[in-house]
Structure formats: C-alpha cells, structure tokens
Amino acid sequence: xxxxxxxxxxxxxxxxxxxxxxxxxxxxxxxxxxxxxxxxxxxxxxxxxxxxxxxxxxxxxxxxxxxxxxxxxxxxxxxxxxxxxxxxxxxxxxxxxxxxxxxxxxxxxxxxxxxxxxxxxxxxxxxxxxxxxxxxxxxxxxxxxxxxxxxxxxxxxxxxxxxxxxxxxxxxxxxxxxxxxxxxxxxxxxxxxxxxxxxxxxxxxxxxxxxxxxxxxxxxxxxxxxxxxxxxxxxxxxxxxxxxxxxxxxxxxxxxxxxxxxxxxxxxxxxxxxxxxxxxxxxxxxxxxxxxxxxxxxxxxxxxxxxxxxxxxxxxxxxxxxxxxxxxxxxxxxxxxxxxxxxxxxxxxxxxxxxx
Length: 356
Hints:
Layout: E1 5-14, E2 17-27, E3 32-36, H1 43-51, E4 58-64, E5 69-72, E6 85-88, H2 100-104, H3 113-126, H4 142-154, E7 160-164, H5 172-189, E8 192-197, H6 200-206, E9 209-214, E10 217-222, H7 224-229, H8 234-239, E11 244-247, E12 256-259, E13 262-265, E14 277-280, E15 285-287, E16 295-303, E17 306-313, E18 325-329, E19 338-339, E20 341-343, E21 350-352
Parallel strand pairs: 3-8, 3-9, 6-7, 7-8
Antiparallel strand pairs: 1-2, 1-4, 4-5, 9-10, 11-14, 12-13, 14-21, 15-20, 16-17, 16-19, 17-18
C-alpha cells in the first residue's frame, strides 16, 4: 500500500537552534499516528512543519494525492492552503465573533452556498452539533468547542488531519468517550491523522501507530503494543513509564543473569544488548514467602491498580544495587518493611542497552 505521507531526513532550525533533526516517518492512508515525547522535543514543530506554518531546512515531505505526489523541499515550498492538510490547535482557535455555522464554513467560503450548507448539515450531524448552529463559542462546553474545531478542520475535506493535544482541555470523564467518537469518525471518513499528546493512554485509545520523540528525533515507531512490549532503548521505556531498569550480570558460560532479586534465565529475555540493564515491568514481579527478603519499601501510594510501592535492593553488591523499583500489590506493606520479590517464572522481560 502506498503511503499517504512520507517524511525523509527532515530537519528544522529556528533562530539557529536545531528543533528537528533527520526525521523519517511514513503514514498509511486511514492510519492515526500518536506523537509522544517530553515537552520541547519537537512534536508541535513537526505538526507545524507538515502544515506549512514552519519552513524546513533540509529533507522532504511528500503527500500522495489522487492524481500525483506533492513533494516539498527547502527549494520547493508549498503554501499551507495548497497542502490539503487540516489542523486543530490545542486551544481550538475558534473565532469568538462567529457562530458555530460560520466557524465551520470558514474554510469553504469559496464553495457555493448549496455546497456549504450540505457540508455544514453533514458535519453537524456527524459531530452531534444539531441545534447549535447559531450559538457562539463562549456558549458551548469544552467538548462542544472541540467538535466545532474538528468540523471546521474537516469541512475542506483534507487528506490529513493534524491535532495538537486535542484532548488536554477536556474533562477526564468525557475524554475517553470523545476519543472513541472522533476515532470512529475519522475511520468512517477514511481520514489519516497525526496527533500530539503527552499521555500514552490516549495513544492506546486513539492511535493505530505511535512515534516516540526526544531531542528533535524520532526514537521508535510501531504499534502501541509492540513499542511498549519491546522498547528500543531506555529513553522510550522511561518516557512511557514501562517499568524500572535494574543492573544485571552474566558470568562466562552461564545461562543465568544475576540480579539483586535473583537469577534470570536466557529464555526469559526478549532482547539482549551489550549494556546489561534489565527492564522490569510491575506485572513481572510478585511477593514471595519462600526466599529471604531482598528489597525494602521506600515509598507507598494508592492507585486504581492497588498499592504502589517503590523498592530498593538490600544487596551489598553495589554493581547490582538498585532503587525505585516499581511494584503493585493488593497487600498493604509498611515503610521500611523488608520483603522478598521475585520475577514470575513465565514473565518475558526486556534487556536494553542504555544510551550513553
């Protein structure tokens, strides 16, 4: 299947600062991609570059169309209005002096009145905005404002929709419902989308693919489940809060790795890299009454998954010592309590190379 968007070696500099560096990314027709990463890593800049609001310094962006491909380079720029890309900003950017109807039709004013009315009625029905056509933005709830912003972006029938943290201003109770509704709408209209978020849970609900960014680069792409099961390095695992890295060591000719909480067999590992750091997810761990205590409780908090503990090792071997091991349990432990933790026999854990 041909790609709808192909980004090759894209770089962006702003005021002599490199914001994006060697970005390579593809998006298939109909796919929804979630861009995640720490603040300042370049996510919004990438959206603005795709939309044409920021010029690239290097590389190319290619949009596939029904008739031909549009390739954008530093020497062959294309104005935003010619890219057939819709964008929804974090604050929705609705025009406060325009009604809902006029906001939605703003980008299709050159169409006939009949076509505008047809588009307006269709989008208002799809986005559950019936009866709100003559209201102004300040008369709408946050969820309704978001729907109007989406309708306005969809009115010109873009090939690609860009969304900058579209759910951050929505009440938590409505967020999941809206994400499912909008995902279903995009799939129904067969519109591809890229959205920025800090919340990995939003990616699992809304996206088909995930791209993890850091320092202006894309570290890893794939389905959300694949990336979470096999993070490529510690930065990906750390940002997605997939677990805790602990040091391990393997003696020559041994089939076991030593750790401060016991031995791990080779067959329990998904990947092996030269720097021996083991990624342990909370679900890999369990309390044991059959071995001597090997950790101590550092902190305790209460979550919807039960009691959450951070544990430190008791080992005197400083090369294998660790702190901050994340562990969930229904059992109530006490601060300073020494407990025995083991890795579940059938758990598949990941050994990652730490970036220098």
